[in-house]
Amino acid sequence: MNTSRIVQTLLLLTAAFTIVGAQAVERIDDGDSEFDPIFSIDEYGADWIAGDTDDDGVTDYVLKLDEFSQKRYEAMDFNRDGLMDDFYIYNGGVLASEQLDTNFDGAIDLWIYMHDGVRVRGYERDTDYDGTVDLVKEFGEDS
Ligand SMILES: [Ca+2]
Ligand SMILES: [Ca+2]
Protein backbone atom coordinates (compact mmCIF):
# COMPACT_ATOMS: atom_id res chain seq x y z
CA MET A 1 0.00 0.00 0.00
CA ASN A 2 1.60 3.29 -1.06
CA THR A 3 1.11 6.59 0.71
CA SER A 4 -1.57 7.99 -1.58
CA ARG A 5 -3.58 4.77 -1.26
CA ILE A 6 -3.38 5.04 2.55
CA VAL A 7 -4.47 8.68 2.43
CA GLN A 8 -7.36 7.75 0.14
CA THR A 9 -8.46 4.96 2.52
CA LEU A 10 -8.27 7.33 5.49
CA LEU A 11 -10.37 9.90 3.64
CA LEU A 12 -12.97 7.25 2.79
CA LEU A 13 -13.07 6.09 6.41
CA THR A 14 -13.43 9.66 7.64
CA ALA A 15 -16.29 10.26 5.21
CA ALA A 16 -18.00 7.03 6.30
CA PHE A 17 -17.72 7.95 9.98
CA THR A 18 -19.00 11.43 9.27
CA ILE A 19 -22.10 10.01 7.59
CA VAL A 20 -22.69 7.50 10.41
CA GLY A 21 -22.25 10.27 12.97
CA ALA A 22 -24.72 12.49 11.18
CA GLN A 23 -27.37 9.77 11.01
CA ALA A 24 -26.93 8.92 14.69
CA VAL A 25 -28.15 12.36 15.74
CA GLU A 26 -31.87 12.29 16.30
CA ARG A 27 -33.70 15.53 15.77
CA ILE A 28 -35.86 16.83 18.59
CA ASP A 29 -38.70 17.94 16.42
CA ASP A 30 -39.67 18.11 12.79
CA GLY A 31 -40.57 21.69 13.52
CA ASP A 32 -43.09 23.43 11.35
CA SER A 33 -43.31 21.67 7.99
CA GLU A 34 -44.99 24.73 6.51
CA PHE A 35 -42.03 26.91 7.42
CA ASP A 36 -39.31 27.44 4.89
CA PRO A 37 -36.99 30.31 5.83
CA ILE A 38 -36.79 33.14 3.31
CA PHE A 39 -33.37 34.73 3.68
CA SER A 40 -33.36 37.56 1.16
CA ILE A 41 -35.40 40.52 2.37
CA ASP A 42 -36.34 41.27 -1.25
CA GLU A 43 -38.22 37.97 -1.50
CA TYR A 44 -40.85 38.75 1.13
CA GLY A 45 -44.25 39.32 -0.46
CA ALA A 46 -47.16 41.61 0.39
CA ASP A 47 -48.53 39.12 2.96
CA TRP A 48 -45.65 40.11 5.27
CA ILE A 49 -45.55 43.23 7.42
CA ALA A 50 -42.17 44.88 7.02
CA GLY A 51 -40.38 46.87 9.70
CA ASP A 52 -37.26 48.98 10.00
CA THR A 53 -36.09 48.71 13.63
CA ASP A 54 -33.10 51.06 13.37
CA ASP A 55 -34.79 53.61 11.07
CA ASP A 56 -32.10 53.50 8.39
CA GLY A 57 -34.68 53.09 5.63
CA VAL A 58 -33.88 49.42 5.08
CA THR A 59 -36.21 46.59 6.14
CA ASP A 60 -34.63 44.44 8.84
CA TYR A 61 -37.75 42.85 10.33
CA VAL A 62 -40.79 41.07 8.90
CA LEU A 63 -43.91 39.67 10.50
CA LYS A 64 -46.66 37.41 9.22
CA LEU A 65 -49.96 37.00 11.04
CA ASP A 66 -52.28 34.01 11.01
CA GLU A 67 -56.00 34.11 10.23
CA PHE A 68 -56.72 35.19 13.83
CA SER A 69 -54.28 38.13 13.55
CA GLN A 70 -51.86 36.36 15.88
CA LYS A 71 -48.14 36.13 15.19
CA ARG A 72 -47.27 33.24 12.86
CA TYR A 73 -43.74 34.04 11.69
CA GLU A 74 -41.19 36.70 12.41
CA ALA A 75 -37.76 37.21 10.89
CA MET A 76 -34.96 39.61 11.69
CA ASP A 77 -31.81 40.69 9.91
CA PHE A 78 -29.60 40.92 12.95
CA ASN A 79 -26.35 41.94 11.23
CA ARG A 80 -28.13 44.17 8.65
CA ASP A 81 -26.63 42.50 5.59
CA GLY A 82 -29.94 42.13 3.72
CA LEU A 83 -30.35 38.48 4.67
CA MET A 84 -32.64 37.39 7.47
CA ASP A 85 -30.78 35.40 10.12
CA ASP A 86 -33.19 35.02 13.01
CA PHE A 87 -36.54 33.30 12.41
CA TYR A 88 -39.37 32.88 14.93
CA ILE A 89 -42.18 30.38 14.42
CA TYR A 90 -45.39 30.80 16.40
CA ASN A 91 -48.36 28.51 16.94
CA GLY A 92 -51.55 30.25 18.00
CA GLY A 93 -49.48 33.34 18.74
CA VAL A 94 -47.16 31.41 21.09
CA LEU A 95 -43.47 31.06 20.24
CA ALA A 96 -42.89 27.42 19.26
CA SER A 97 -39.38 27.51 17.83
CA GLU A 98 -36.60 29.72 16.61
CA GLN A 99 -34.18 29.09 13.76
CA LEU A 100 -30.94 31.02 13.50
CA ASP A 101 -28.16 31.51 11.02
CA THR A 102 -25.47 32.31 13.57
CA ASN A 103 -22.56 32.66 11.12
CA PHE A 104 -24.58 34.65 8.54
CA ASP A 105 -23.86 32.27 5.65
CA GLY A 106 -27.51 32.01 4.53
CA ALA A 107 -28.14 28.60 6.12
CA ILE A 108 -29.84 27.75 9.43
CA ASP A 109 -27.39 26.25 11.95
CA LEU A 110 -29.28 26.56 15.25
CA TRP A 111 -32.79 25.32 15.97
CA ILE A 112 -34.38 26.12 19.33
CA TYR A 113 -37.60 24.52 20.54
CA MET A 114 -39.79 26.12 23.17
CA HIS A 115 -42.15 24.96 25.90
CA ASP A 116 -45.15 27.22 26.48
CA GLY A 117 -43.45 29.90 24.41
CA VAL A 118 -41.05 30.74 27.25
CA ARG A 119 -38.82 27.88 28.37
CA VAL A 120 -36.33 26.23 26.03
CA ARG A 121 -37.22 22.56 25.48
CA GLY A 122 -34.07 21.80 23.58
CA TYR A 123 -31.88 22.84 20.72
CA GLU A 124 -30.05 21.44 17.73
CA ARG A 125 -26.88 22.77 16.19
CA ASP A 126 -24.92 22.35 13.00
CA THR A 127 -21.60 23.18 14.62
CA ASP A 128 -19.46 22.81 11.48
CA TYR A 129 -21.97 24.55 9.18
CA ASP A 130 -22.18 21.67 6.69
CA GLY A 131 -25.99 21.58 6.68
CA THR A 132 -26.32 18.56 8.99
CA VAL A 133 -27.34 18.77 12.63
CA ASP A 134 -24.49 17.33 14.71
CA LEU A 135 -25.38 18.39 18.25
CA VAL A 136 -28.69 17.88 20.01
CA LYS A 137 -29.48 18.99 23.54
CA GLU A 138 -32.85 18.24 25.09
CA PHE A 139 -33.93 19.48 28.50
CA GLY A 140 -36.22 17.51 30.80
CA GLU A 141 -39.90 18.30 30.99
CA ASP A 142 -39.99 19.08 34.69
CA SER A 143 -43.37 20.72 34.97
CA1 LIG B 1 -28.34 39.08 8.17
CA1 LIG C 1 -25.33 29.45 9.06
Secondary structure topology:
Elements lengths: L2 H22 L24 E3 L9 E5 L5 E6 L9 E6 L2 E7 L9 E6 L3 E7 L9 E4 L5
Antiparallel strand pairs: 1-2, 2-3, 3-4, 4-5, 5-6, 6-7, 7-8
The site of one calcium ion (CA) has 7 residues, from loops.
What does this structure look like?
The chain has one helix spanning 3-24, and strands at 49-51, 61-65, 71-76, 86-91, 94-100, 110-115, 119-125, 135-138. It is of the alpha+beta class. An eight-stranded antiparallel β-sheet has the order 1-2-3-4-5-6-7-8, with no helix packed on it. It has one domain. The chain is globular, with a radius of gyration of 19 Å. The model has no long low-confidence stretch (mean pLDDT 88). It is 15% helix and 31% strand. Bound molecules: calcium ion (2 copies). One calcium ion binds at residues 77-79, 81, 83, 85, 104. The site of one calcium ion (CA) has 7 residues, from loops.
Q: Which features does this protein show?
A:
single chain, 143 residues, alpha+beta, eight-stranded antiparallel sheet, 1 helix, 8 strands, 15% helix, 31% strand, binds calcium ion
How are the strands of the biggest sheet laid out side by side?
1-2-3-4-5-6-7-8
Cα gyration radius (Å)? 19 Å
Percent helix: 10-25%
Q: Order of SSEs, N→C?
A: HEEEEEEEE
What does the largest sheet look like?
A: 8 strands, antiparallel
Low-confidence stretches: none
Mass-distribution shape: globular
- Estimate the mean pLDDT confidence: 88
Structural class: alpha+beta
Total beta-strand segments = 8
Strand content: 25-35%
Count of individual helical segments? 1
Bound molecules: calcium ion
The N- to C-terminal Cα distance equals: 59 Å
When the domains are counted, the total is 1
